[in-house]
Amino acid sequence: MRVHIGDGVRLYFDVEGAQLETDGPDMAERPTIVLLHGGPGADHTLFKPELSAAAGFAQVIYLDQRGSGRSVRCGPPQWTWERWADDAIDFCDALEIERPVLLGSSSGGWVALLAAIRHPDRFAGVVLDSVMPGDTYERLEMFERLGGPEARDVALRYWAGDTGDEMTEAWERVCLPLYSRQPGGDAATHDRLRRVRWNDDVLDHFRTVLARGFDPWRGLERLECRALILAGEQDPVATGLGGPPFRAPAEPRGRTAARPGGRRARGLPRVAETGDGPVAGLRGERSCAALALNRRGRFFVAEYGCRFRCYRRARACGTRNTTGRSNSEP
User: Fold this and answer.
1) Where are the domains of the chain?
2) Into which CATH architecture does domain 2-134+211-320 fall?
């Protein structure tokens, strides 16, 4: 489906899950989640089929951003963070979506963050997945740790702006598989990337122009709505959760958090709610968490790979266990 948002621009979107559900003699409205893909220049299919599970409790709306996927392609003057952020608002206005949760992954998280800053009253909350970048040295170091010196060299040349066919082939062959935990990349990831309707021009524009023009760290200080920030410990790009706005607190004794496969790891409290909001959980190739959504200045952030780590602001981020069981239970 496509919707017209003005100026001749039509954006493609897909929907899973109903907005209303039966509640005895009444109809109850379910929350709406609007998904913003990364790339940039990729499309909404990156979220499928994993995010289909969210349709069990919410209406899920997948959006192809301007210039990407099945939406209008346009040109570089319209490929800006501000334009994409305002498109999210215009899209919600066109479909009369009120106060959705905005979920952005990778560069889509930059769009979600800026949209929430520019329009603070329009969203119930934001989820920023694999969004916060470390410096170039940290990212190159991670690529080398995961894929050896060749991966570091390819990543360095790719980020320096090499747009040649040989460079693109090397990036896809050497670096992209490192986004998966499976050696050489897993079959599901390969299929996912083949399904995407890429606009390589948008991706090249990002590498050569846009990536230098936006600092998500400064954006966090201006964020007023509730936010959940996710990152994988072995993510080769979003390596920045140890950066200046966060500090690593001492590991709380006896506090545990759910881990994939039913195992638990020390470091995160097992919580069902906090004084600030509900628990939210998402899982992806390299990110998984079940955390509290907190208000401005009280971010609660987790990353995991082989182990969990907690980061939070210097101010106290109080949580309480509402599971009815001891935090020290296995």
Assistant:
1) 2-134+211-320, 136-196
2) 3-Layer(aba) Sandwich (3.40)
Q: For residue 119, report the phi and psi dihedrals to the nearest 5 degrees.
A: -135, 70
Chain segment 27-64, per-residue pLDDT in tens: 999 999 999 999 899 999 999 998 999 999 999 999 99
Residues 6+ apart with CB under 8 A from 37: 43, 44, 46, 47, 62, 63, 64, 65, 68, 69, 105, 106, 108
As a whole number of angstroms, the distance between CA 116 and CA 219 comes to: 10
> Which residues, at least 6 apart from 273, have a Cβ–Cβ distance to it below 8 Å?
279, 292, 320, 322
Question: pTM of this prediction?
Answer: 0.75
Q: Percent of the chain having pLDDT more than 70?
A: 71
User: What pLDDT is recorded for position 307?
Assistant: 25
Cis ω for the linkage preceding 40 (within 30 of 0) = yes
Closest CA to 92 of 165, 32, 153: 32
Residue 224: strand, helix, or coil: coil
Contact 65, 72 (CB under 8 A): no
Residue 51 to residue 111: CA distance in whole angstroms: 19
Say how many C-beta atoms besides its own lie within 10 A of residue 281's C-beta.
Answer: 11
Q: Considering Cα of 179, then 269, then 48, then 295, what sign does the dihedral take?
A: negative
